[in-house]
């Protein structure tokens, strides 16, 4: 069924992406300079990726004749640009950073190179060391089509010092109702400290990544098993009202335009008492050069309502477009950035708190990393381990994914719905208005699947 789902809408999406390609303007892959082979790498401008760029001279030193050119963009822009180039075989990139949302779909569409032969021909790379759930999420028909740079679930960070000062305690496994009560107690506008930071920035991979986990644990779903849209169901409404009310009452200033990066900056500068988001947040929170709250945070599992767990499963990974001209050179870079030795390089060069987490089992056996990540390593692995639909949803759904709906149309559908959510957070429309409009978008998508069952 999933292969049919992945194939659906490809022609429409591709036609739309032609426009994006024309607008994006990127130097073509393989441009030559000084006799070197230039690898163009499309990458998301997240802290861990910036660390890789900072360390990339080591790769160039050890691989004479190959130079790297990084095209790094904010998440929403990177998704659009990389999707456009890959879907239309534009050839702008030799290597692209994608997620477990794209990898199986793009593999089914024939857009990506099967990486199994490259891994098999790379002694010591040890693909079996990848965390199984992460490895499986990047696979199609038993082969990996992307290799993980880091993996993540979601959890809740909180300021232990502020909690102690307020005389309140964080439960070991909090509910969302308890989190809302704590946010109200800790909200201190006079001191410039929000009770909690939650994403409100439009984008199916921005605000919806967080919001969908709340929907799931409240018992909501995007579609029932017959592809009927359910965005105006009582459960979905309850989740949306809760989320919007919480962030409007006790969230950060300008929440409707705050994403992962914005919340990360606010929390690291002491401007929020709690932050619910990706487990990879620790590389920001615990980085001495960037954070004012190093060592002051506790980490607990993603809050729940009606499910035993609610964390998501996500990975940023490297893939090779099928039309990449120099696949061996591309793989050499991909191997470098996702190998066990890269983890040790980051630890020795930048600090063990900067190590990309959640991709390799062996990372969690390194003594130096165990010492640095003692406060959150276990929480990260537990979150990844419990991130499945059985634990995070109250009933079956016809689509793969936890914090996303794993169908091609979700890039557009999710972005449209996130815009409605953001407008509700900004106070421009009511939650009910946002959901009524969102329901209309979802019904159109659902009907197209009903027609082909």
Automatic annotation (TrEMBL):
InterPro entries listed in its UniProt record: Bact_solute-bd_prot1, SBP
Taxonomic placement: Bacteria, Bacillati, Actinomycetota, Actinomycetes, Pseudonocardiales
Protein origin, superkingdom: Bacteria
Gene3D superfamilies according to UniProt: Periplasmic binding protein-like II (3.40.190.10)
Name of this protein: Sorbitol/mannitol transport system substrate-binding protein
Pfam families in the record: SBP_bac_1
């Amino acid at each position: 069924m999933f292969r049919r789902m992945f194939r659906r809408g490809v022609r429409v999406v591709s036609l739309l992406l032609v426009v994006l390609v024309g607008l994006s303007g990127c130097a073509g892959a393989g441009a030559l300079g000084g006799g070197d082979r230039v690898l163009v790498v499309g990458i998301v401008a997240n802290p861990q990726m910036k660390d890789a760029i900072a360390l990339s001279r080591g790769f160039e030193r050890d691989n004479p004749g190959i130079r790297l050119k990084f095209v790094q963009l904010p998440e929403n822009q990177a998704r659009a640009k990389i999707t456009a180039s890959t879907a239309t075989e534009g050839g702008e990139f030799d290597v692209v950073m994608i997620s477990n949302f794209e990898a199986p779909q793009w593999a089914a569409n024939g857009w990506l190179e099967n990486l199994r032969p490259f891994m098999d021909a790379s002694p010591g790379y040890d693909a079996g060391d990848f965390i199984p759930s992460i490895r499986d999420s990047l696979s199609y028909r038993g082969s990996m089509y992307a290799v993980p740079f880091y993996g993540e679930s979601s959890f809740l960070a909180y300021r232990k010092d502020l909690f102690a000062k307020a005389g309140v305690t964080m439960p070991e496994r909090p509910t969302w109702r308890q989190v809302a009560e704590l946010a109200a107690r800790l909200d201190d506008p006079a001191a410039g400290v929000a009770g909690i930071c939650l994403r409100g920035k439009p984008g199916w991979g921005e605000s919806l990544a967080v919001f969908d986990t709340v929907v799931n644990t409240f018992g909501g779903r995007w579609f029932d098993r017959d592809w009927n849209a359910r965005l105006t169901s009582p459960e979905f409404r309850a989740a949306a009202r809760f989320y919007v009310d919480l962030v409007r009452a006790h969230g950060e200033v300008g929440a409707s335009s705050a994403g992962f990066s914005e919340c990360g900056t606010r929390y690291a500068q002491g401007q929020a008492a709690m932050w619910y988001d990706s487990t990879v947040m620790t590389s920001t929170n615990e980085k001495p050069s960037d954070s004012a709250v190093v060592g002051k945070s506790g980490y607990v599992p993603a809050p729940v309502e009606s499910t035993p767990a609610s964390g998501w499963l996500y990975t940023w990974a490297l893939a090779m477009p099928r039309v990449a001209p120099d696949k061996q050179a591309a793989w050499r870079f991909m191997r470098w950035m996702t190998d066990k030795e890269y983890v040790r390089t980051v630890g020795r060069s930048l600090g063990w708190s900067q190590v990309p987490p959640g991709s390799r089992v062996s990372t969690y056996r390194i003594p130096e990393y165990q010492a640095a990540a003692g406060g959150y390593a276990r929480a990260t692995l537990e979150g990844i381990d419990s991130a499945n639909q059985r634990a995070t949803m109250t009933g079956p759904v016809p689509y793969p994914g936890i914090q996303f709906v794993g169908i091609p149309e979700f890039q557009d559908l999710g972005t449209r719905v996130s815009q409605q959510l953001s407008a509700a957070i900004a106070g421009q429309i009511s939650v009910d208005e946002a959901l009524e409009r969102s329901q209309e978008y979802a019904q159109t998508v659902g009907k197209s699947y009903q027609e082909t069952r």
